[in-house]
Amino acid sequence: QKEVEQDPGPLSVPEGAIVSLNCTYSNSAFQYFMWYRQYSRKGPELLMYTYSSGNKEDGRFTAQVDKSSKYISLFIRDSQPSDSATYLCATLRGGAQKLVFGQGTRLTINP
Amino acid sequence: DSGVTQTPKHLITATGQRVTLRCSPRSGDLSVYWYQQSLDQGLQFLIQYYNGEERAKGNILERFSAQQFPDLHSELNLSSLELGDSALYFCASSVDWSDTQYFGPGTRLTVL
What we know:
The complex is a heterodimer of chains A (111) and B (112).
Chain A: E1 4-6, E2 11-14, E3 19-25, E4 30-38, E5 45-50, E6 54-58, E7 61-66, E8 71-76, E9 85-93, E10 99-101, E11 105-110
Parallel strand pairs in A: 2-11
Antiparallel strand pairs in A: 1-3, 3-8, 4-5, 4-9, 6-7, 7-8, 9-10, 9-11
Chain B: E1 5-7, E2 10-13, E3 19-24, E4 31-38, E5 42-50, E6 53-57, E7 64-68, E8 74-78, E9 87-94, E10 102-103, E11 107-111
Parallel strand pairs in B: 2-11
Antiparallel strand pairs in B: 1-3, 3-8, 4-5, 4-9, 5-6, 7-8, 9-10, 9-11
């Protein structure tokens, strides 16, 4: 079983829709949670970084962490074609140096 | 632009060969990480260096090695290359281990 599970999609939605991307993780020692966006042929770029359970909002993006169920989500409101990319969830165990990534979900926003 | 640079952008080589990938971290970042991204395995952590010293190791093959130099740039050496080593190799950097990691544009390695 992978430490972080993420549905690879692909996911295709119309412009303006609310997008929900999800990951589950198995190790309760994970304390930091991140969402990265990766455009084709580019390196991942950090979108959201959270530590505790609850919601964190940044513009059209909301990251949600539920440590009790080991579930992390990213919501994108008013989705735009420029949001089309692969979204990777990642976790970091306190005291550790390595990021553990999900498989990534390929998202397409159709105009 | 993350501020992390990687060279070369593309590498095409043959099985059994040896290649070196280079990474320059963001100004002020002491920690460098190497990741491998393939279609079947996703993004996998290979190794981390902090201020010249190895700090963490992931699933890095014995045929692979890395180092970080006094000017903080890092090199990833891949030897006895196999077809399965074809992948995107990313370098990331951060100020310290718990800080945000910023990724470079990657090197695409193709082994024929």
